[in-house]
UniProtKB/TrEMBL annotation:
Superkingdom assignment: Eukaryota
InterPro entries noted in UniProt: GPCR_Rhodpsn (IPR000276), GPCR_Rhodpsn_7TM (IPR017452), TAAR (IPR050569), TAAR_fam (IPR009132)
Annotated TM spans: 37-60, 72-93, 113-131, 152-172, 209-227, 261-281, 296-315
Protein name from the UniProt record: G-protein coupled receptors family 1 profile domain-containing protein
Family that this chain belongs to: Belongs to the G-protein coupled receptor 1 family.
A Pfam family it matches: 7tm_1
A GO-annotated cellular component: plasma membrane
Cited PANTHER family: HISTAMINE RECEPTOR-RELATED G-PROTEIN COUPLED RECEPTOR (PTHR24249), TRACE AMINE-ASSOCIATED RECEPTOR 4 (PTHR24249:SF220)
Ranges of residues in domain G-protein coupled receptors family 1 profile: 52-312
Cited Gene3D superfamilies: Rhodopsin 7-helix transmembrane proteins
Amino acid sequence: MDTLFMNKTDVDNVLLCFPNQLDSCPRLQRFSVLKGAMYGFMLAAILMTVFGNLLVIFSISHFKQLQSPTNFIILSMALVDCLLGCLVMPFSMVRWVEGCWFLGDFFCQIHSSLDMTLSIASILHLCLVSVDRYMAICDPLSYRMKVTNGSVAVWIVVTWLFSCLFSFGIVFSKVNLIGLDEQMLNSCVGNCVLIFNKEWGVIAPLLNFYIPGTIMSCLYLKIFHVARKQAKMISDRTAVGLAGEKNQVSEQRERKAAKTLGIVMGVFLLCWLPFFLTTVIDPFLGFSTPVDVFDALIWFGYFNSMFNPLIYGFFYPRFQKAFRIIILRYVCRFTNSSNLVLQ
């Protein structure tokens, strides 16, 4: 009798996502302080992602000096990252903190599809930027002929279409769930988790991370090698009397190239590699990764969209000046900002 009473009490104390439904998923029980800290941290990340990328979008759209093929790729990438911050991250935040999905199965599929679409598109845009920079530095003579606004627009459209069709196709066809039993699917009401079987757990990361990441790594290594070689050639042509200044300029260029490329690849790998490693390994381990760990890895990937404006915006002087003009003129309403001109 005591045992039955204790079991009934334990069941009554369990918080459910939907208390009126017997097949509801259990709701995560967290301390209020922890929930407040999680909400505060993720809201700050969302705001930085949205407004940082809006600043990039407005800068390129407003200043003609920034409207180049390279910056059109960055503009499209900023749009992707901004949409991720607006349409995906807020719902992922509530799902992680509360441990529940409150919007039903159909919107769960929409959210999962958009999550995949925008995350993949962001990664592929980074790959496009690396290809563009490789052609500009390693083949500068034919760069202006091959890389035009039209050709860049085509590649941007292809990137968006591939990301959208791939993601929505997988989620709505449920090909990623073939062969998984009901216990693995955890089909209680209030659950919204995108999982992959062994086949798609390898195919999806391979197409959308490992191949683009390998291309980026190889191209940036080649760019760094060529940049060092060009700096040395320029240095050798400098007058002998300016040898000290020559070496200093050469070393500064090499350090700047190494720093920029190192930050680009370091942030990209730091944000996305843990998630995609887990995505590949988890199906072979019986989906044993804790939900909180998996959600944390997803947010590490989201942070790449927050860092993109910093990497591709704040590291370039023209973007820095454009941001300063926009903030002073339109945010702070600084009257003397009309005297500032982007050169």
